[in-house]
Specification:
By secondary structure, the protein is mainly α. The protein has one domain. It is about 75% helix and about 0% strand. Helix 7 packs across helix 8, helix 7 packs across helix 9 and helix 8 crosses helix 9.
Length: about 200
Amino acid sequence: MSILSLLQQAQNGQGLANVASQFGIGTDKAAEIAEMLAPAISGAAKQKAASGGLDALLGNFQGETQGALFEDASAAASAEGQAQGAAFLDSLLGGQEGRAALEGVAAEKSGLDFSMVQQILPALAAMAQGGMQKSLPDDSISSMLGGASSGGGGLLGMAAGLLGGGAKGGPDLSMLTNMLDDDGDGSVVDDLLGKFLK
């Protein structure tokens, strides 16, 4: 299941509508932001993995500490939820400047005020992180991390597997790869921020 699908299916399919109501905007606008956010998260995550940050990336998805943000739109929209989502985006996008750039493009494309996007984008990011935590079992993440530190292909092998190059003998990255493959074609390379930057 892709990140966008996670957001679309959150809260029995009402997650985006519920978040939209928290901010007083239309569901269509929340959906539009989600459609831009999902490939941005995917692309940034793949880029982070390729540059050797796979362990930090996987750490974002361990446990279920953010699970409530996936299940409760008011929690995701709260100040704490927004702060968590902003921290998640900062970790993927290289800091506040990367997040601000993403927010700027999202505001321009959606027609929403920048100040509104600064709130709803982190809220949706928090929801996405919570959904990914719930969808990726800790034992799978542990095996991925274990493979990174043992002889199971190493970090380079894992990054190759995540980016579509295959990692023979390495850990099974299929769950994470499927989540990061936005267009469902089995290759994550061509998704690298492409949809977001159109």
